[in-house]
Design a protein that fits this description.
The complex is a heterodimer of chains A (114) and B (114).
Chain A lengths: L2 E3 L4 E5 L4 E3 L2 E3 L5 E7 L5 E7 L5 E3 L5 E5 L4 E6 L8 E8 L8 E2 L3 E6 L1
Parallel strand pairs in A: 2-12
Antiparallel strand pairs in A: 1-4, 3-9, 5-6, 5-10, 7-8, 8-9, 10-11, 10-12
Chain B lengths: L3 E4 L2 E4 L5 E7 L5 E7 L5 E9 L2 E4 L6 E3 L9 E3 L8 E8 L9 E2 L3 E5 L1
Parallel strand pairs in B: 2-11
Antiparallel strand pairs in B: 1-3, 3-8, 4-5, 4-9, 5-6, 7-8, 9-10, 9-11
The chains are: A mainly beta (114), B mainly beta (114).
Chain lengths: 114, 114
């Protein structure tokens, strides 16, 4: 069965500093991986996705993530954050078989401070 | 513009009352999903439907019911059997092929049981 672990529940960071949000997954088969962002009282918006091919994936708002199959990780990075990046970030996995529904991590709250 | 519409955005109900949350999509997606979000727990799958007139239980289906009579609509009923119904509910949809699992979300409905 697939599962996702987001290692940090909260990440405080100063504006213009780099940030990494960590995500590890557990699956016995090939997977599709996603990062979503959620602003307060809103739905989730797709940041980026890994389906196949290059392990470095670029998304919206300057975010990128690297798929590492040997470490079963899909960490999200941004070289310089802005106040507007303050939000909750969710990592999700889909094995593409079985019930065909995304499994989400518990989320990481990114708090960007001036 | 295509998208997913959830209503109402906020809902207050007394304990013991059934509540129905609406979800409509005009993306022509085959699959639709309901997730529940609680602080610190990420998103948990309640029910999903891959096709009209068919749906499956997710991880936390007890106390909930759904129907899928039309492709565009996937209403969720929170019954009085749900022990802790206060939460943020998110509806999502996806295409069936290719089956990457990428979800498109509505803006959510916040249910508070008094």
């Amino acid at each position: 069965a697939q599962s996702v672990t987001q290692l940090d529940s909260q990440v405080p960071v100063f504006e213009e500093a780099p940030v990494e949000l960590r995500c590890n997954y557990s699956s016995s088969v090939s997977v599709y991986l996603f990062w979503y962002v959620q602003y307060p009282n809103q739905g989730l918006q797709l940041l980026l996705k890994y389906l196949s091919g290059s392990t470095l994936v670029k998304g919206i708002n300057g975010f990128e993530a690297e798929f590492n199959k040997s470490q079963t990780s899909f960490h999200l990075r941004k070289p310089s954050v802005h106040i507007s990046d303050t939000a909750e970030y969710f990592c999700a996995v889909n094995e593409g078989t079985g019930r065909r529904a995304l499994t989400f991590g518990s989320g990481t709250r990114l708090q960007v401070q001036p | 513009d295509g998208g997913i519409t959830q209503s109402p955005k906020y809902l207050f109900r007394k304990e013991g009352q059934n509540v129905t949350l609406s979800c409509e999509q005009n993306l022509n997606h085959d699959a639709m999903y309901w997730y529940r979000q609680d602080p610190g727990q990420g998103l948990r799958l309640i029910y999903y439907s891959q096709i009209v007139n068919d749906f499956q239980k997710g991880d936390i289906a007890e106390g909930y019911s759904v129907s899928r009579e039309k492709k565009e609509s996937f209403p969720l009923t929170v019954t009085s059997a749900q022990k802790n119904p206060t939460a943020f509910y998110l509806c999502a949809s996806s295409i069936s092929q290719p089956n990457t699992g990428e979800l498109f979300f509505g803006e959510g409905s916040r249910l508070t049981v008094l």
